[in-house]
Amino acid sequence: MVKRKRTALEKQTNLPSLQNQIRRDPPSYRDDFLIQFRHYESQRDIFLAQPEGYDSEPFIEQLGFITHVADCYPDVTKRFPQDLADLLLHHHNTLEPDLREKLVQCLVQLRNKDVIPSTALLQTLFPILTTTNSKHLRSQLYHSIVSDIRNANAKTKNHRLNKTVQGVLFSVVEAGKGSPDAIVGLWAVKVTRELWRRNIWDDARTVEIIKEASLSANAKVMSGGVRFFLGVDKEREEMDESSDDEDYNESLSKLKHQAGVSGKTKKKQSQMERAVDKLKKKERNKHKASPLNFSALHLLHDPQGFAENLYSMHLAKSNNKLSMEQRLLVLQLVSRLIGLHKLTVIGIYSYLLKYLTPRQREVTRFLVAAAQATHDQVPPDLLEPIIRKIADEFVSEGVAGEVATAGLNSIREICARQPLAMDESLLQDLTTYKGSKDKGVVMAARSLIGLYREVAPDMLKRKDRGKTATMEMKTKEKLRFGEEATGTIEGLDLLEKWYEEQKQKKIEEGGEEAADKEEEDQGWEGWDVESDSDDSGSWIGVSDDEKDIEISDSEDEKPSAKAKKTKPQENKEDGMDIDAEDQGGSAQSTNSPSNFLSLATTRILTPADLATIAKMRAAADLQKASSKTITALRNEDEVDESLIEGPKTRGKSDKEARLAAVQEGREGREKYSSKRGKTLAEKPHSTTNKEKARKKNFLMTLGQAKKKQKRSLIEHRRILKAHVEKQKKGK
Amino acid sequence: MGSSSKKKKEKQKDFVKPKLKVGKTKPKADNHTSTSFRAKAIVVGHQSLNAAAPTVQSQLKHNLTLLNHHAYATRRDSLAHIASVLSSSSASNPPISYSVLLPALAPLIVDSTAPVRTQLLTLLNNLTKSKDLRQDAIIPVEAIQMHTPRFLLYIHSAMTHISADIRADSTNFLSWLLDVVGEEAVRGAKGWGKTLKCWIVLLGWEGAKSGKGVRGSTIEFSDPGKNKKASLQHFGVLKQFLSTGIVEEEVQLSYFDIKNRSLLLPHQYSDAYMMPKTSNIYGHLNLFGILTENVNEEDAEGSAEDCDSRRRIITNVFESSLRTGLQAKLQEGGEVGRAAGAVLKVLDKALKPDNNEMT
């Protein structure tokens, strides 16, 4: 009996059961495994003797088995991964698709079991990725490469692996840089982009790979690299947001609802607690600034050299075969780099000049590029021809409203970045368009006026200046090229005002000294606890104040209110206004900037102070966003195309187009009809009285009609009364 | 009003149950199909009446493709057909090229069903061995020699197969190959080192080397009789294998031979500098292969072109595990023990002169 048991135990009939037994007790089944391993070897030899037309199904099964248990017998399977890699590397074009897929799977599995290091896996897969002809294999390899790197970086960043992989990718890109036919780099770009998007790689070395790719001679690789710089950070943000938001919030609200509706159980309660914990953790993470979240453009080494190379390689040469779209992409990137890093690439301005005509395709993108390539360190003589050309070509009587709008808007964008590029007579010509019939043109011209009211009111005509600008003109210094404004701590004025208010409150409650003392203590105390309710109460007060000021402004002069706070450096002067009007009577107002630095020079700012500043600024920004102002302009920001195109007006259209618009509005809307009719239509029902009346034979109704005509007044009255009675009873 | 009642009646009609009456036939259903007619003849649309039967060659070709058929009976039958056609043909003018036939037959060594394997074995035995001395075999030895590596690959595969039946049958094929081609089957890394490795795992003696003891055979049948039969056969073939590989045939050199040799070859080591008599002597270097074989693994798969190198391999790598396993079997006694003893004797005999030389 014992013997029978033993034989039953040892009898091996199929691989899955053997696999199961081996996993439980590897030493006992070593012999069985050895047989299978020799079997694998012999099958591999058979395969090598005849790679084509080989029935691969048993071999696939064998491969799967060995892979699954390879980690139990590391001494026997020492060469197994290398065998697989060799098979794949040398035969990947002739292998049967199933077998090929299995081989890749096995390698990935071995990696997951930590039998082989990640670098070995990637060194096998990457060369195949770049050489294989099979689309299916390529996508499989690509996904396994990306997911392997992701897994390796899941808990902590695996810097060593990242470094080696980046090195491989860099060398791949660099190798194919010179020749226009090498598309190997495309895969490197794709992998890098994916990993950047997932926030796995976010360092300068990654950016260096893409930089190399965007300087490659192959148009595809180049545009891949350029697109990375232009779009990837936005993608990353979107991905972050989408991954966070939906999951927790929805699930939490759902749980809350369920907790209210159905019975309370322990399970549900714990679920709820877990969800709340998660949410709290998320909130905490949100406030924690991630230190490595720079955009790709900021991480570039030597942006000046990069921009110059891009320009000279892809734009300046007239004989290259880039398509319009690709050239536009490069132009966009170069201009973005120039604006962001305040670079000097002189050639680009004359290059742009060529394309600035209304008939040019995609002219708005060229205008955007012109605006982006402008910053306050660009010599005005370079920009003057551009502005002159835009004014001549776009802004004249003969052109359509949209064209003039685009021209004026782009001039405004350029001048907002470099006001010195404009000369007085041209500006005064352009401002006359505020009387145009086209709404877009009017708005564009007004915004130009608003801009110059702030930066250089003396260039405007007298009647365009407005009251506040005229008043400021006396104190305002003339613009000079290359001048830098003195720096301040942004939001310091807001903090000072907040302190004033707090003091007032304290004085109202108790003595002044107590208030002073408390203030000092509170600064450091609040840092740990962050008493939210206290702070929020205070910044409501501030915002109220600001609103008052704005209202008073707008009474005086509407456009000036619009023009307020356009630039961050203007914030300072804004603050001046506020103070001047706020504390008008207190005679403290001076126009020197030292006033605002007083707080910074007299006391040390506590962390609590800084937190308050952040809050105040957030509140002020909210205020700004809600009030009508020109959007904040910065040379670092991208210029939006819609900003230049101006408001879109619907032109006169023919009847068909109008009808189509109407139909579009009706799409997905229920048909208007009575509710009763709809409910009746849904269910089977007997004929209603109304339906009966409608179907009633005409001849039968004739007698009734005759009788109606013949009845006497009294009779008529009785019927009417009865009807009224019936109505009342019915209700 | 009138119309609605009429409609009501119409609707009701569908649900009225037909009344059955005694002595009257049941009314037919609406969807009743009449099957009362009778056909006078069945007409076949198309019939091939081609007088020319397919040629022997085309039939053979067809049967070769049927060797991959999923139904085992078909495979067996096509093997039988091939055997019958070939046995009736002459050796000098075969109806099909051997380079087509033999590679197609080799994979059937690992066929999953026993009848097919037996059929294959009988086919091979009948066609490749001459029945009597006057007559040559139908498939010449040279053809088999050409395809020996291929047969060896499949025999290895069978020796290590997970199915015990296939493993048990595998040595029959090895025995056949040794019978037919002799030393060719044990030459080279594939023939010697690889096969020995398979032997070791087949007999379950891998543990002997590392001192973990012999587990006994991995031939598992629930029927002990069958078990014994299989192991008897294994030891028989092992003996044959070893004697082919490492026991040098004692060729009695006649006086004239020796004299001739000394006349023809002035130096005693001239043999070493002569053109080799066998083919592919540098096969173990794997000059044109892609995968690097496990040459370094204790020299198990090094060059095994001649008897001496084979002996060296066996003493370096396999001797200890072989001896331990065989001793264990010998102690068990019985018929199997006797067979193991015979193998052990061969081993002793083969390795003794070597030892004497060394000492």
Structure in a nutshell:
The complex is a heterodimer of chains A (731) and B (359). Chain A has 731 residues and is mostly helical.
Strand and helix map with partners:
The complex is a heterodimer of chains A (731) and B (359).
Chain A: H1 2-10, H2 15-24, H3 30-49, H4 57-69, H5 80-91, H6 97-112, H7 118-131, H8 135-152, H9 159-175, H10 184-197, H11 204-214, H12 219-261, H13 266-287, H14 303-316, H15 324-341, H16 347-355, H17 363-372, H18 380-394, H19 401-417, H20 424-431, H21 439-455, H22 462-465, H23 467-473, H24 492-509, H25 512-529, H26 532-556, H27 558-562, H28 571-582, H29 594-602, H30 607-626, H31 641-645, H32 655-666, H33 675-682, H34 689-695, H35 698-710, H36 713-730
Helix pairs in contact in A: 2-4, 3-4, 4-6, 5-6, 6-8, 7-8, 7-9, 8-10, 9-10, 9-11, 10-11, 10-12, 11-12, 12-13, 12-15, 14-15, 15-17, 16-18, 17-19, 18-19, 19-21, 24-25, 25-30, 26-30
Chain B: H1 2-13, H2 56-66, H3 72-87, H4 98-105, H5 114-128, H6 141-146, H7 148-159, H8 164-181, H9 188-203, H10 206-209, H11 224-246, H12 255-264, H13 270-273, H14 307-332, H15 334-358
Helix pairs in contact in B: 2-3, 3-5, 5-8, 7-8, 7-9, 8-11, 9-14, 11-15, 14-15
Verbal overview:
The complex is a heterodimer of chains A (731) and B (359). Helices cover 69% and strands 0% of the residues of chain A. With 731 residues, chain A is mainly α. Chain A has 4 domains: 2-245, Leucine-rich Repeat Variant (Alpha Horseshoe); 346-473; 492-637, no CATH class; 689-731, no CATH class. The longest helix of chain A has 43 residues, at 219-261. Chain B has 359 residues and is mostly helical. Chain B has 2 domains: 56-146, no CATH class; 147-249 and 283-359, no CATH class. Helix content of chain B is 57%, strand content 0%. Chain B has 15 helices and no strands. Chain B is elongated. The model of chain B is unreliable at 290-298 and 355-359 (pLDDT under 50). The interface between A and B is medium-sized, with 33 and 32 residues. Chain B: Residues 143-242 form the Pre-rRNA-processing protein Ipi1 N-terminal domain.
